[in-house]
Design brief:
2 domains, BirA Bifunctional Protein, domain 2, alpha+beta, 5-stranded mixed β-sheet, about 425 residues
């Protein structure tokens, strides 16, 4: 293990890359603001029991992927493998059910940890943008959440998106379906992987989400939950489709979407960017009407989604929509000589107090080297001063585009800069 190498499945975001994250975050914040969502921030780790009860102990996430450890107090702690359970816990703990409903929340840059083989855009430590809504049971909220996801992705320059929908029913209609599913799976029990054989009794729906090629092939012939919905779930799903159609959103009903977490009920969906290859799902979510109650909170409906931010940036790059890095500086102050260095320091701070991005040489480079560096920052003007300029009370202002240079009295430099940068 190399001391100077990041752990497998993690990635540094370098200074020359972070502007891409800033732009993505701005898109997400702006969309959430216009949809009436407020930001929530929850801890990076939680008590393990939260995920066992909320996510489900038959899921791949809990059985295979969680980073769980015992802290010095003997408590079982888990680095969060997804965002919803932590937000649900915060909702209950802080009694947000007493606030006006619905409560519409979002999080971004939320670190998520899963011990699995690193994939393109899906690392062992990756970051999620997600939304959570509590207190709205109507299918119009399902549609709104999907529309918000689409808007964010499309604003990132990713087009040709596909929305895949399914309904996995509710506690009223799911038991009959599970019985039907178990009847279908019974002759294949010996072919299923060991994990799915343990799921057969407790949660056979999870078998349809298995990554094993054999289990996946067996699942292709299984009966569909969409054909076994109760009247309420059917009406809810039809209403969702009608809302999407009213907004011109194209979708396809995919009976094999069950999502990987136990808390989902009724609506589940994925947003697919077909142009990015195998790892094409850029957003997944659905409704979880029983989650709060399961965790000991109020019986309120919920819905949301999670979106991998690394995968979204990967999709943006593959679609050729990455914009150039913005200029680091507006102005660069180039001192030549000890007296000029003191004056350059004063002028640099003054420029910053005026709201400009400004920097100066702190290394003692030659003028040629300073101009080469200034050009790399993308600044529009360099302010050059040597001991002679200090004596004469002037600053040489050089345009980095044209190399045109003019001498400006020191007391008039700010007015001159304001006028030139305004053009």
């Amino acid at each position: 293990m190399a001391l100077t190498q990041a752990p497998k499945g993690t990635k540094d975001v370098l200074p020359q890359e972070v502007y891409l994250w800033h732009r993505m975050e701005n898109v997400m914040r702006d969309a959430c603001r216009r949809f009436g969502f407020r930001e929530i921030r929850v801890p990076t780790f939680e008590h393990t029991e939260l995920f066992l009860r909320g996510v489900g102990d038959t899921t791949d996430v809990v059985q295979k992927e969680m980073y769980t450890f015992e802290d010095k107090g003997g408590r079982s702690i888990t680095l969060k493998p997804e965002g919803t359970a932590g937000v649900a816990r915060a909702f209950i703990e802080h009694q947000l059910s007493n606030a006006p409903m619905p409560q519409k929340m979002y999080y971004l840059n939320s670190p998520v940890f899963r011990y699995e083989r690193p994939q393109a855009g899906r690392l062992r430590e990756h970051h999620q943008f997600g939304v959570e809504v509590y207190g709205a049971k109507d299918a119009s909220m399902d549609a709104e959440v999907i529309l918000l996801a689409l808007e964010v992705i499309e604003k990132m320059g990713i087009t040709g998106l596909e929305v895949h929908l399914n309904s996995i029913g509710c506690p009223n209609c799911r038991p009959a379906y599970q019985a039907k599913l178990k009847e279908y799976l019974r002759p294949h029990l010996g072919e299923l992987c060991e994990t799915c054989r343990t799921r057969y009794e407790k949660n056979p729906l999870r078998i349809l989400d298995c990554k094993s090629p054999i289990c996946h092939e067996i699942g292709q012939g299984a009966p569909h939950m969409i054909d076994c919905l109760c009247d309420d779930c059917r009406a809810h799903f039809d209403s969702l489709k009608a809302h999407l159609e009213a907004r011109g959103v194209k979708y396809s009903v995919d009976p094999f979407i069950v999502r990987g977490l136990d808390y989902y009920t009724r609506t589940v969906f994925e947003v697919i960017a077909s142009g990015i290859g195998a790892q094409s799902t850029v957003c997944g979510g659905g409704r979880y009407d029983g989650l709060l109650k399961e965790l000991g909170g109020p019986d309120l409906p919920g819905i949301g989604f999670g979106m991998g931010m690394e995968r979204l940036l990967m999709a943006q790059e593959l679609y050729g929509k990455v914009q150039e890095e913005p200029a680091l500086l507006d102005l660069y102050v180039a001192p030549l000589g000890p007296a000029a260095r003191e004056e350059a320091f004063r002028l640099t701070q003054q420029l910053r107090s005026e709201g400009y991005a400004a920097d100066m040489d702190h290394i003692g480079r030659s003028l040629k080297a300073q101009m080469k560096y200034a050009d790399k920052t993308g600044c529009r003007f360099a302010l050059i001063m040597g001991d002679d300029e200090i004596r004469d009370g002037i600053v040489n202002v050089r345009s980095m585009d044209s190399a045109e240079q003019v001498s400006v009295p020191t007391g008039e430099v700010l007015d001159y800069i304001r006028e030139r940068l305004a053009k």
